[in-house]
DNA sequence: TTGAAAGCGCTAACAC
DNA sequence: GTGTTAGCGCTTTCAA
């Protein structure tokens, strides 16, 4: 019933070693034997067993994907989209993805993910912020690591990030192009690198257009970039400025909160104030008005990570260490030209 | 560096066979030796290699997940949510999920998914409709199969379905309880078992309340249950009936289309007509008004499938063949009480 | 360019 | 109750 390498060898009239060499594309096989073997493989419909290969070659054909529980479970499917991106790319690169989640409380005494302990992955993708202890433990395993949307505080790892600075620039430029000058920045905690970079982009673009960057127009006090904080921050911003005509929110959630506040106090969007968000969460198009935003290609983040990791695994010495995935301005109805 | 079963055996002063027996929880090991071995395992931080176990035991610890390209890629994350559910449950049952997608055009000559050929999964979950040829080829492999949201035309496989009939009943009952009597059914092709069952539930509940089932109130002509068809169907339904006070749409997409049409011709929802959908797609809450619907717990579908498959794999003779996942009425603002 | 043979780390008969 | 041993199916020196 089950076909093994022996059957192929017998049928092709060669040794199993030769068959193996053909399978692994070794160059020291003559065209003739290669053909013979290939034919036998095809005739018998043979595929080498993963377990057997893995046992001897130390290559499993699997990639691990690690993220924290709360990232996996949160409603907005940001990280699960990234994961889907890796699944997508894995198919192309002939890998399978093993997913695991771990608690935020991971301590140095906790066991590593099972796929690590069982030596069942050739490399690992880590998405979003994870406990530093995890990275420390993982480092000892000498297993290739790639990070997505998180810059680990130590080590020299390949990283896949979205281009936050350029996104901040694009969003701001869009507002400037529409004639806005009094553009507020609605941010969260600037300790978060993404938010800091978006702010950098905002400032750069203003300066480039000789618009004075005013700290009164910049809100960075919110502890978390969530809707409720966007609501509060918009309120506070408006109390300090009476001439804001546009807002660049550091993410869609905060943009949503800001829009809510403006609606509550009767300020029309985009009639009176234009708003740009960042992320392009799924619900944006159902908003009223639909939100203009910077789209983060989550799928691409996952795809790039698999590419990077795949390079690392098959080819030890590669230059690429950091991939910046471009973002894209999506113009909807929350922004408007002014005179 | 790397710890093997030999190291554990040496440290515990027993043979590797004994260690293996302890690992597999074999009962014919004395408490004493078990303890000794367990301690050695812990001290050395040993975990058996997946590949080695797989090679000899024929158990990989992996489950395959198959769905078609278009199901994987479609915007509404129905099947990807199911997949996420299997990932979730896999963690609990100590499995990993290997995902693969395949084209709708799968023919008998196409190769089976790689994880099947490489003998890298212990069982397979198939979500949504797949080509019959696939099932036929898979059957020969004697590998446990579980279907989600699809009843294969042949074979005797365990299946996980949502409870469409009961959902249809619940939706209809909700409208009846609200005082409605002229309730239309907005359906797609009744060849689709889900739609047929929802219609069955609708009819049953009407009959139970002695409301005559009128074919004029039932639309089943739409080829696909999509928004555009909902729009058309609503239009046609209204042209034949002038006293419809409520609509049960066979899914949210069609409900959306219907709402759009009603908005276009100035009929208020729920003021004039109440609407119930089915599925609970993510965008429902952003609708105006938010849609009352029957929620299909996608995650649960995946979870149940893993449970079923896990039972099959570990324990050959089990009774459960069909799991009906309950659905739930989510009341929002598209339905209203009438006098 | 090919083959013989060792062995990857584990499990499962079968002895003892 | 525990140990011995023979592989599982493959890759990889090393010889030829």
Q: What would you note in describing this structure?
A:
Two copies of one chain form a homodimer. The first copy, chain A, is of the alpha/beta class. Chain A has three domains: 53 residues, lambda repressor-like DNA-binding domains (434 Repressor (Amino-terminal Domain)); 130 residues, Response regulator (Rossmann fold, 3-Layer(aba) Sandwich); 133 residues, Response regulator (Rossmann fold). In chain A, 42% of the residues lie in helices and 15% in strands. Chain A contains 13 helices and twelve strands. In chain A, strands 2-1-3-4-5-11 form a six-stranded parallel beta sheet. In chain A, β8, α12 and β9 form a beta-alpha-beta unit. In chain A, α1 packs across α2 and α11 packs across α12. Chain A starts with a helix and ends in a 9-residue tail after the last strand. At the A-B interface, α4, α6, β2 and α7 of A face α4, α6, β2 and α7 of B. Chain A binds a DNA duplex (16 and 16 nucleotides) through α2 and α4.
Q: Layout of SSEs?
A:
Two copies of one chain form a homodimer.
Chain A: H1 5-12, H2 16-23, H3 31-44, H4 50-57, E1 62-68, H5 69-73, H6 78-92, E2 96-102, H7 114-117, E3 123-127, H8 132-139, E4 145-148, E5 159-162, H9 164-177, E6 183-186, H10 193-208, E7 218-219, H11 227-240, E8 246-249, H12 252-264, E9 274-276, E10 293-295, H13 298-314, E11 322-325, E12 328-330
Parallel strand pairs in A: 1-2, 1-3, 3-4, 4-5, 5-11, 6-7, 6-8, 8-9
Antiparallel strand pairs in A: 10-12
Helix pairs in contact in A: 1-2, 1-3, 2-3, 6-13, 9-10, 11-12
The structure holds a DNA duplex (16 and 16 nucleotides).
């Amino acid at each position: 019933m089950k076909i093994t390498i022996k059957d192929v060898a017998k049928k092709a009239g060669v040794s199993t070693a030769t068959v193996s060499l053909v399978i692994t594309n070794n160059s020291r096989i003559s065209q003739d034997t290669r053909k013979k073997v290939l034919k036998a493989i095809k005739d018998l419909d043979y595929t080498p067993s993963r377990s057997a290969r893995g046992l001897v070659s130390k290559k499993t054909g699997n990639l691990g994907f690690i993220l924290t529980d709360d990232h996996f479970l949160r409603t907005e499917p940001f990280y699960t989209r990234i994961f889907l991106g890796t699944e997508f790319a894995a198919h192309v690169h002939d890998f399978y993805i093993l997913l695991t989640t771990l608690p935020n409380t991971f301590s140095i005494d906790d066991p590593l993910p099972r796929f690590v302990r069982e030596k069942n992955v050739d490399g690992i993708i880590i998405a979003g912020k994870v406990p530093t202890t995890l990275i420390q433990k993982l480092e000892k395993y000498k297993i290739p690591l790639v990070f997505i949307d998180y810059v680990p505080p130590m080590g020299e790892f390949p990283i896949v990030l979205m281009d936050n600075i350029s996104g901040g620039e694009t969003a701001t430029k869009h507002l400037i192009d529409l004639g806005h000058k009094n553009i507020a920045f609605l941010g969260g905690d600037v300790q978060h690198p993404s938010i800091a970079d978006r702010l950098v982009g905002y400032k750069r673009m203003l300066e480039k257009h000789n618009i004075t960057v005013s700290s009164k127009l910049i809100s960075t006090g919110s502890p978390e970039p969530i809707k409720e904080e966007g609501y509060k921050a918009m309120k506070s911003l408006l109390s300090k400025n009476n001439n804001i005509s546009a807002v660049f929110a550091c993410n869609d959630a905060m943009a949503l909160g800001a829009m809510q506040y403006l609606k509550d106090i009767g300020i029309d969007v985009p009639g009176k104030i234009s708003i740009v968000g960042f992320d392009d969460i799924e619900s944006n198009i159902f908003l009223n008005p639909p939100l203009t935003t910077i789209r983060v290609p989550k799928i691409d983040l996952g795809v790039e990570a698999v590419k990077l990791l795949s390079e690392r695994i098959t080819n030890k010495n590669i230059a690429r260490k950091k991939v910046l995935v471009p973002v894209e301005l999506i113009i909807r109805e929350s922004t408007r030209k002014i005179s």
